[in-house]
Design brief:
Layout (H helix, E strand, L loop, with lengths): L2 H22 L5 H8 L5 H13 L3 E2 L8 E2 L1 H11 L7 H11 L5 H16 L2 E7 L6 E8 L4 E8 L4 E7 L6 H15 L7 H11 L5 H16 L4 E6 L1 H5 L2 H4 L2 H12 L1 H12 L5 E4 L11 E10 L2 E11 L4 H25 L1
Antiparallel strand pairs: 1-2, 3-7, 3-10, 4-5, 5-6, 8-9, 9-10
């Protein structure tokens, strides 16, 4: 038997073990593999290959006399070198688009996309989307809430809305708020939110009399509002599917760790954001997630774009024991659908 034949057999054994483990959540023994392969390999040969896979760090034996389960390294080798790279067909893509498109607003679209992906994969799904800070100004509204409190409503051209309660040094009447809002909108509509403060600071340096007070007050309010607005939002749907998986439903400690990891939303968001800077679908397995508490999880993510710019991402979070070929195909397809839908929305805006 030459090397190529041997590697093919070894990879086939690993593939069968992972596929069976995904379905059963139980260690896989040589007897199962022998039945699956229908005597094309002897039981002794199968046991030898399983032993070699274990020595290579691709499998491990959780208990003496038990079968084997994949390691993080085994899953990684499987994803990179063994599993089929499926792609959704045109009909499947059209069906997904029909499920996510009825949304009237951007937030509804993002939530719907997460729900659809979660239902299709029976795992948790996440969507990362920009906030108003990544868009341009359509309107800014100021509403007094009390003597020294003001509601600042930021409305972007793509209909994203953010609102923040701002503490103000001087009381402001409703009429004063309307007048200040009129000034802000006259000066700033159409500008990127990321340029607002710089534009006002430059205007403040140039003003000496007439509008100095209005510019200064506008700058103070918007600095406060934008300082608490994140660059991106994370929508997470369907965690009930993950909690119900045997890894977590049978082990209270692992379930607790999972919930602790999900509480670290900023860490998870930062890790996924790194992957959205790469090309195409990314898969992170176990400790590669790099979020304490999520060592028993994997995620699969893909970006969506408008024009040449990556504006967000969508993906699936679940146990390491997930159906990677199917999940990868669905995530990649959903990323393509989101790109199509958002591109149409951008053209119609």
């Amino acid at each position: 038997m030459n090397v190529t034949d041997y590697e093919q057999r070894r990879n086939r054994i690993l593939e069968l073990i992972i596929e069976a483990y995904v379905s059963t959540a139980s260690p896989i023994g040589s007897e199962f593999l022998s039945r699956k392969l229908r005597s094309t390999l002897s039981s002794a040969t199968i046991r030898n290959i399983m032993g070699e896979l274990e020595e290579a760090g691709l499998l491990e034996q959780p208990h003496t006399s038990a079968g084997r389960v994949p390691t993080d390294r085994g899953y990684r080798f499987y994803v990179d070198a063994v599993m089929d790279r499926r792609r959704l067909g045109v009909e499947e893509l059209h069906r997904i688009e029909s499920l996510i498109q009825p949304a009237e607003e951007l937030d509804q679209l993002l939530e719907r996309a997460g729900n659809v992906l979660s239902e299709l994969t029976q795992q948790a799904a996440f969507v990362i989307a920009p906030t108003v800070k990544r868009s341009t100004v359509k309107q800014i509204e100021l509403v007094p809430l009390g003597v020294r409190k003001l509601l600042c409503v930021l409305i972007a051209n793509d209909e994203m809305i953010a609102s923040h309660v701002v503490e103000i040094e001087e009381p402001m009447s409703r009429d004063e708020a309307v007048a200040l809002g009129r000034f802000i909108n006259t000066e700033l509509v159409g500008l990127p939110f990321s340029d607002l403060l710089g534009s006002l600071e430059r205007r403040l340096l140039a003003e000496h009399e007439s509008f100095y007070y209005l510019v200064k007050r506008s700058l103070s309010i918007l600095q406060d509002a934008l300082s608490t607005e994140p660059d991106e939002r994370l929508f997470l749907e369907g965690m009930r599917y993950v909690i119900a998986q045997p890894e977590f439903s049978r082990d209270a400690r692992k379930a607790h760790e999972l919930l602790r990891g999900l509480d670290a939303e900023e860490a998870l968001l930062a890790r996924i954001r790194q992957d959205l800077g790469g090309e195409g679908v990314q898969v992170r397995i176990g400790r590669e997630v790099q979020v304490p508490g999520l060592e028993e999880c994997s995620y699969v993510t893909a970006p969506f774009t408008v024009g040449e710019e990556v504006v967000g991402g969508i993906g699936v979070l679940g146990p390491k024991r997930m159906d990677y070929p199917r999940v990868r195909a669905l995530v990649e397809g959903m990323g393509r659908c989101m790109t199509e839908v958002l591109t149409h929305l951008d053209r119609d805006a």
